[in-house]
Design a protein that fits this description.
By secondary structure, the chain is an alpha+beta fold. Helix content is 44%, strand content 12%. The protein binds iron/sulfur cluster (SF4). The site of iron/sulfur cluster has 14 residues, from helix 9 and helix 12.
């Protein structure tokens, strides 16, 4: 659909104002009766636990998060214990959840809470949003769940729900249009602080269930008679977002050195792709890899099937070459790691798969 129009500005604002008295009570009642209540992070108002779940749930399914959440809390029962841990251990425990920048920010945030807030999360969305890795929506979710603050959330699912409810046709690729939707999200908040937790959870539950990207189940929806997109029969056209992610392609060669069951691993720099993770030495082309290999062995490395790995902004083609060594030479900064020690190292998913 054609993105739009500032002329729609008044329309969606007026729709939000008109729906505000009915929308929140309807959603709160639905959440209390039909929403999710049994998730472990819903049994607490401890900001540490709520924050941990919110960060883990970004880009990850609830069923995947459950086990990680449990293991993290067993190992790090308090934010101080997480802050005091070594980053390598946090990254290793994060393996499998992906998007490792979340784990690095998790650790930095725990340290900021320890060092700047005396070990207690600050009790307002505005202060929470100042901590590493906590965006405006996550800050609002924590503040509403733990402190009943009237703060609006607007993650991807909620943009879809509110975009449809208001038939908001502003293009969300534009930050000005996104700000407009934030204002509408604030207009729609419940009047009573006591309803904030159920309301916030209700928006999340509706976005994760009935108001799905494709084929929303409007007939079961608690706000179907309020929903402007449903009235028009155009639910799947919202939200509007025109910008397509431009994907590029990169190609690298991986040198898999092995000596007596140990594998040579190098840690990636603290910034950039796979920051802080341990990988095989990476080369920009095969000639560079072969010249390094010749310094280590008279034998030629064995080519293995290529690996295609999709990251957020690009597709990565990796060509592994395996070379057993007679001597445990040190080709650079890194470590010889025995196979049984590998679980203690945070490895990128394709390497974990390659090493079996
Ligand atoms: Fe989403 Fe349909 Fe409900 Fe509208 S009526 S909020 S499109 S599920």
């Amino acid at each position: 659909m054609t993105p739009t129009p500032d002329s729609s500005a008044d329309t969606s604002a007026a729709t939000a104002t008109a729906l505000a008295p009915d929308f929140a009570p309807r959603l709160v009642a639905w959440q209390r009766q039909h929403g999710r209540h049994a998730l472990p992070w819903q049994q607490t108002r401890d900001p540490y636990r709520v924050w941990l779940s919110e960060i883990m749930l970004q880009q990850t399914q609830v069923t995947t998060v459950l086990g990680y959440y449990q293991r993290f809390l067993e190992r790090f029962p308090t934010v101080r214990e997480l802050a005091d841990a070594h980053l390598d251990e946090v990254l290793a425990m994060w393996q499998g959840l992906g998007y490792y920048s979340r784990a690095r920010n998790l650790h930095r945030c725990a340290q900021a809470v320890r060092d700047q807030h005396g070990g207690a999360f600050p009790p307002s969305a505005a202060q929470l949003a100042g901590l590493p890795g906590i965006g405006r929506s996550t800050a609002a979710a924590i503040a509403s769940f733990c402190f009943d603050e009237r703060a609006a959330i607007l993650d991807g699912n909620v943009k879809r729900v509110l975009g449809r409810l208001l038939a908001f046709d502003g293009d969300l690729a534009s930050s000005a249009q996104e700000k407009r939707l934030w204002r509408h999200a604030e207009t729609l908040l419940p009047a009573a602080e006591a309803d904030m937790a159920a309301y916030t959870q209700g928006l999340m539950d509706l976005g994760a269930s009935l108001c799905s990207t494709r084929s929303p189940q409007c007939l079961l929806c608690p706000v179907q008679d309020l929903c402007e997109a449903r009235r028009r029969g155009t639910a799947e056209q919202f939200p509007v977002r025109t910008r397509k992610l431009k994907r590029s392609r990169r190609e690298h060669w991986w040198l898999w050195l092995e000596h007596e069951g140990r594998i040579w691993l190098e840690q990636r720099p603290a910034r950039g792709v796979w920051a802080g993770l341990w990988t095989l030495p990476l080369f920009e082309d095969e000639a560079q890899l072969l010249s390094q290999a010749r310094l280590l062995s008279a034998q030629a490395p064995e080519p293995l099937p290529r690996i295609e790995h999709a990251l957020t902004h690009f597709d990565w083609v990796l060509h592994p070459r395996r070379l057993p060594l007679q001597q445990a030479a040190r080709p650079g900064e890194g470590a010889w790691v025995a196979r049984e020690e590998l679980p203690r190292y945070a490895l990128p998913a394709p390497l974990k798969k390659l090493l079996g």
